[in-house]
Amino acid sequence: MIFLLSIAIGSLFAGAIFLMLRRSVIKLILGLILLAHGAHLLMFTMGDGGVRRGAPPIVDYETGAVAPGTADPLVQALILTAIVISFGITAFIIALAYRATQAVKSDDLDDMATTDRL
Amino acid sequence: MANHLFLPLISPMLASALALLFARDKTRMVARVIVLASIIFNLIYSIWLLWVVGNEGIQVTQGAGWEAPFGVTLVADGASALMLCVATLLMLVTVSYSFASLDPGYENFFYYPLLLLLLLGVSGAFLTGDIFNLYVWFEILLLASFGLMTLGGSRPQLEGGLKYVVLNLFGSTAFLVACGLIYGTVGSLNMAHVAERMSSVTNPGIVTVIACLFFFAYGGKAAILPLFFWLPTSYHTPPVAVTAIFSGLLTKVGAYSLYRVLGLVLQDELIRLAPFVLAVAGLTMVVGVFGAMAQMNVRRILSFHIISQIGYSLMGLGLASAIGLAAGLLFTAHVMIVKTALFFIGGAAEQVYGTGDLKKMGGIARREPLLSIFWFLGILSLAGIPPMSGFFGKLALLQAGINQGALLISVVAAFTGILTFFSMLKIWNEVFWKKSYGDMSKLPRVTPGLLWPGAILVIISFALGIGAGGLVDYSQMAGAQLFDRAAYISSVCGSNGCEAVVDLALR
């Protein structure tokens, strides 16, 4: 499972970088969304499996033993927070890009370089 | 245990919600009073916190009463108290500059609530003791800054803002990935706990990866050498007050986070990466100042100087010692004040002329002598000439550098100081000294509301230069606290360390 997930994360990052290097604003935004998904999946893999050292926070009150079948709830909480944040920022950036393309009358990033000139 | 560390977060949060209700023409004064009250409260609190931390050491608040490695912890040590105090002071001055300079349209479209949310995010980032919590505070301050950057919706703002948003978002994603990796490696996100467990990580490669990801993420927000392109393309587009507060706070939060996470949590890795950090610091200084020389616009020149000054902050980090961090903190606190002052004064001149183009400006020294005097004192401070505070900031950095045998970076830092002065004199010559080509008598005068925010910051810089002893002592105390992992861990988790708390909880 971890193997499949690693490939999925890798492809998400690769696709995101590829899209972000294009000149279109829409592709740039799609790239950012994919990048966020990749990061969330990466956090997901950090909960269980080999790399982790800490024990899950849910343990039996009496014995301190880890109950069978429990997943680490902390990574899920972290991902949930990160998803909400990236959702909000994506909404903002879509609105911003819409206004920017209206003002510049083009969705080519090379046309949005007036503030870079001397 | 001190529960008061929540106060500077609650006050701007409540005030921004209240100010939102009064963001209309008729009730504008009510909104202004609410905003001012909240910021003045924060300022008094942060000065008191500075005093408390100086006397009693590190202050810790455990969120909702959860013991340290389990809940979210707020920690105030010397570095965070110092940064919090300077940031709140800058916010107060910025708000009063905004009263004098902004169109009413801005106030109706939630300018002050956004400013308070920016203060909230910045204060939270300075006070938190949890790495994921730091990510959340960063997102709050970034989202507020996105709003401020693009408020107004002119074409340059939208173009610059889009780049600003995209590059900062990219940095945030790297931050998130690093958070995930750190949790996967050590199983905790509390800074004290991570610092404690870092020493027993068996795979050193993953720690290097994490440190480099953090360096990339915070470095992008702090505008270090290869990652600064978002800054000069966007910082001159919003109103002057927004640029000034951005220059004082945003990149410096990045620098502070570098200090906190690399200097404290990943300290062993920082010592290993120190030559690399110093190289980036030197290049950032030089490239920033050369970039400034090519520009012909007041705020663009100042924007490039922000990059150059970040190089100095990074130099303090790269020295990887308590003295180095202390010197870096001293310099960062000084540059936050002076940089914001220069943006206010340059911005006031720009607002009078209606343009920031050096070629079209001129003759302000004769027409506005007070403004010119404060500008000149400000550039003396930025360049590091006594008795202004910049001298002591640079002196501390150079002393630390030479003591540790980092001669090359010290030479580069001294050389960059001269170039900085040279480049600032260009603005002096073009804007203030040379004769005006046009008829100046029809231009509006600089109102006191535009003059005094910059002037008071320059006076503070002068006072800090005269009374530098106290500030130097405080920054050395803060640097020692920042570099002392054992003391940090024992004040957050108790004298037995975080691992003992976990063992006790799990039995």
Fill in the keyword field for this structure.
heterodimer; A: 118 residues; mainly alpha; 3 helices; elongated; B: 507 residues; 2 strands; 78% helix; ND/Mrp_TM (chain B)
Number of helices of chain A: 3
Greatest interface and its residue counts?
A-B, 43 and 47 residues
Structural class of chain B: mainly alpha
Which strand-content bin applies to the residues of chain A? under 5%
Q: Total strand count of chain B, please? A: 2
Average pLDDT of chain A, rounded to a whole number, is: 84
By CATH reckoning, the class of chain A would read Mainly Alpha
The CATH topology assignment of chain A is: Helix Hairpins
Q: What's the oligomerization state?
A: heterodimer
Q: Which ranges of chain B are low-confidence, i.e. pLDDT below 50, for 5 or more consecutive residues?
A: none
**What are the segments of chain A in which pLDDT stays under 50 over at least 5 consecutive residues?**
49-53
The ordered H/E elements of chain B are HHEEHHHHHHHHHHHHHHHHHHHH
Shape of chain A: elongated
Sheet with the most strands: spatial strand order of chain B: 1-2
Structural features, described:
The complex is a heterodimer of chains A (118) and B (507). Chain A has 118 residues and is mainly α. Chain A has one domain: Helix Hairpins. Chain A is 61% helix and 0% strand. In chain A, helix 1 packs antiparallel against helix 2 and helix 2 runs antiparallel to helix 3. The relative contact order of chain A is 0.13. The model of chain A is unreliable at 49-53 (pLDDT under 50). Chain B has helices at 7-21, 28-56, 78-101, 104-108, 111-127, 131-150, 155-186, 191-198, 204-222, 230-234, 240-265, 267-294, 298-318, 322-353, 364-367, 369-383, 389-403, 407-433, 448-466, 468-483, 485-493, 498-506; strands at 59-62, 73-76. The longest helix of chain B has 32 residues, at 155-186. Chain B has a two-stranded antiparallel sheet with strand order 1-2. Helices cover 78% and strands 2% of the residues of chain B. The mean pLDDT of chain B is 91. Chain B has one domain (3-506). The radius of gyration of chain B is 22 Å and the shape is globular. Chain B has 507 residues and is mainly α. The A-B interface holds A 20, 25, 28, 32, 35-36, 39-40, 42-43, 45-47, 51-55, 57, 59, 64, 74-75, 78, 81-82, 85, 88-89, 92-93, 96-97, 99-100, 103-104, 112-116, 118 and B 70, 132, 135-136, 139, 142-143, 146, 150, 153-156, 158-163, 165-166, 169-170, 173, 176-177, 179-181, 183-188, 197, 206, 232-234, 236-237, 294-296, 506-507. Chain B: It is a multi-pass membrane protein. Chain B: The chain crosses the membrane at residues 6-23, 30-54, 74-97, 109-128, 134-152, 164-186, 206-228, 240-259, 271-294, 301-323, 329-349, 370-393, 405-428, 449-472. Chain B: Belongs to the CPA3 antiporters (TC 2.A.63) subunit D family.
